[in-house]
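In this supplementary section we document a worked example of the pipeline. Step one takes a protein sequence of length 434 as its only input; no multiple sequence alignment statistics are reported here. Step two produces a three-dimensional model, which step three serialises into structure tokens for compact storage. The input and output of this example are shown verbatim.
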Amino acid sequence: MQALKLWFKLGFIGFGGPAAQISLMHRELVEQRHWISEKRFLHALNYCMLLPGPEAQQLATYMGWLMHRTKGGIAAGVLFVLPSLFFLIGLSWLYIAYGHVPLIAGLFYGIKPAITAVVVHAVHRIGSRALKNNWMWGIAAASFVAIFAVNVPFPIIVACAALIGYFGGRYLPHKFSVGGGHGASQKSYGPAVIDDDTPAPAHAQFRWTRLTRILIVGGVLWCVPMAVLQLYFGWEHTLTQMGWFFTKAALLTFGGAYAVLPYIYQGAIGHYQWLTPTQMIDGLALGEANPGPLIMVVAFVGFVGAYVQAVFGPDMQFLAGATAAVLVTWFTFLPSFIFILAGGPLVESTHGNLKFTAPLTGITAAVVGVILNLAVFFAYHVLWPKGFGGTFDWLAALMVIAAAVALVRYKRNVMQVIAASAIIGLLFKTVMGN
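The serialised model returned by step three reads:
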């Protein structure tokens, strides 16, 4: 019961992105409650770093599974996400139904420059950690050119970067050994319930029968809803395509949520046209201001796409949006649960033997270039809201610079910057009367 309360609490207070959420988990599990030792916590974190998907939610699932078997892992992962889903459904409805109201419009006018600065800050933060030599800089530059100038699909960029990282790790290991984990210290916080030398519990010991069972159940949990969608609506229907698209997105989120955002805007905006570029920026703002994984922005994308297209008819738009939000959340997070429940026993049996960081290093370097393209994309739509043929928004530009300085130079957190920018935007729109 104590563990359930903890995961539920973290679901409500997990603001600030994966780094803040992982730090919060570390404080609760390692430092204060002594449920997990430092080394076991970091070992699990390194595994989650190597996986596609939201690393903080996967770490919560791993910790819940290690302490309380499969039911503990499912409970931890679900409770970590559930509050965010409900909040985003409500916020998405308020946004799409009342976003034209002057109060809401003024707030979002201020928020958009802040979000642009947040993405620029992500480029700086990930780049400063990942781009340690000319090879990494070259991969980042090539990925930026590929997606910006040639419009190469994001999955191809990830695959090429992983391939370069794989061969680089074999033939130039000193150049490709700079990534792969958080730089946390190997500090001891005293004896823990699951300590460094605590034998792996029975459920954490690898068995082929268990692995096969997890994979079969996971496959059924994906196939059944997808089959129902296809049989009831057809393959080309918006909900079916959302299920398929966000399944692919879940398998491509190496490097965190910011890395998959370019893939989402390529598909959701460019290919499917579920929402506009402005709505995508606003959705990221809502995601940043929401507890839980940032990748929960997918719920906003699903809600807005199904609501605007009125997939259940004009009188059931909220139901359509809420259904889509739940569906895309299911298809986005299901692979994460499978990765943890299937791979956890292997990780517990191989302390210190994970040797897959070279491909991850290449992917992380490519992610820097991809996120830079996302920053350029956001900046264009914020600074030239009507295109290059329209006027340049000088106030928005100043707000982008001020927000970036606050984040990078003065280390202010994202929530503070977004709140301040929203107030400035509201005041400006109130004074100007537009």
